[in-house]
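ERR on first pass: missing label on line 2. Operator R.T. fixed the label and resubmitted. Corrected input:
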Amino acid sequence: MAGSGSIRDTLEGAWRPALFLLGVLVLWSASTALGWVKPYLVPSPWAVVAEFHHDGALLAKHTEITLFETVVGFVVAVAVGLAFAVAIVYSRTVERTLYPLLLVAQVIPKIAVAPLFVVWLGFGIAPKILVAVLIAFFPVVISGVAGLRTVDPELLDLSATMGAPQWKTFLKIRFPAALPQIFAGLKVAVTLAVTGAVVGEFVGANQGLGYLLLIANGNLNAPLLFAGLIVMSLIGIVLFLLIEIAEKFALPWHVSRRRDLLA
Amino acid sequence: MTDALRFDELGCTFRSKRQVTVALDGVSLAVAPGEFVSLLGPSGCGKSTLLKIAAGLVAQTAGSVTLLGRPVREPQRDIGFVFQRAALLEWRSTRKNILLQAEMRDLPRARAEERADQLIAMAGLRGFESAYPHELSGGMQQRVALCRALLHEPPILLMDEPFGALDALTREQMNVELYRIYRETGTTIVFVTHSIPEAIYLSNRVVVMTPRPGRIAEILDVGLPVERDYGTTMASPQLAALADRARALLGASAHQE
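pass 2 clean. output:
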């Protein structure tokens, strides 16, 4: 089942994207070395590597801030999102009142309201976290509601014949049954949270990767700009992988069955 | 002695926006403690609905139902219920699926675990205690569901076409084992099926039901010896005669349509 086999599979699966990335690097290197593109538009990969070396401390400082905003935003989005999902599934009234409003809240472009949050909450990290929460919240609610609803009605009947109280039915049947869908939502949400934090920083900040990117852009410092972009992507990828690992631990039954289905 | 289960002039009508369906009409039946009674009929004759009414999962629209002498008004907990699909929790092993019954009822842990191990041995599930449902065959999944339904030693077991989804050979095997378990535990069993030989082999009485509206056509007294070898019983002239009678009753209802 899951374990050494899946790690081996991951390594076996990694060579294709690695090869592709290597190809891109070679092409990138060549085009800058041969002068096809101007270095202030696209720096050479070696310039970017050198940038990591020079400004490592600077990048680390701003990364720490963006990472903090992202993680706090994500955690709050998950807590609030799941609470909403439970309320919606258990109460028709809440569903009728909140569901349409949620949709409205989702279609309002968060990027457009970000400046408003700066006016309300100032230049600190609070408005960035708020944008991250708002942008990551929706997939959590949607996957939570879908997951909690997919429970087999026979399992609820079974629980009734066991004389189980509502909270036990939720804890032992409904919630675990919903977890595969909830995890799918969490994976989407965590990558969106990074976007939210950076967008928040674009609007008004004096720290964080979004701020660093704006400064680099203003100074035509292409290597720093690219370094910033790479770090942002890495944050998203690492957080995504952490959720996948958590999923493997929380749902060994689901992960192994999914592997069976794919095989 | 109080009946284990009793229906009096029971009726059940489902209303949707487009139509009114009479699922059950004028059903009266008394099941004695320790009896094995099968509800036999084609799909749509209301036999599953009848079982769910007994469990308090569906409310009747006419008549009354009493379980162990008490009127049924809400989901009953003095029962074990086995569904057509095993209804196991995919994220729990065999043993933990069986112990769900104890967790939901707050039964003492040590006693429940001991009982679960006995049931696992009785149902031939030794060696599969830590397997997840998707690693088990359909027959094994139903055995787990049966163990779960028996964990709290219920005075009455309600089974809703539990072997309907199994292949013919597994089904025969499950019939033999269920009969053995019935003999060992002495639990009252009400068993829904659409298989004529299955109903006769297992039961003391077979309730033959006809559809639209769901009614009892006739109640057959099986009268086979208590010790029932599967092969001998299947080949016996008594079973053939009873099966003919059941087929005639079910066929007659098909002709009316």
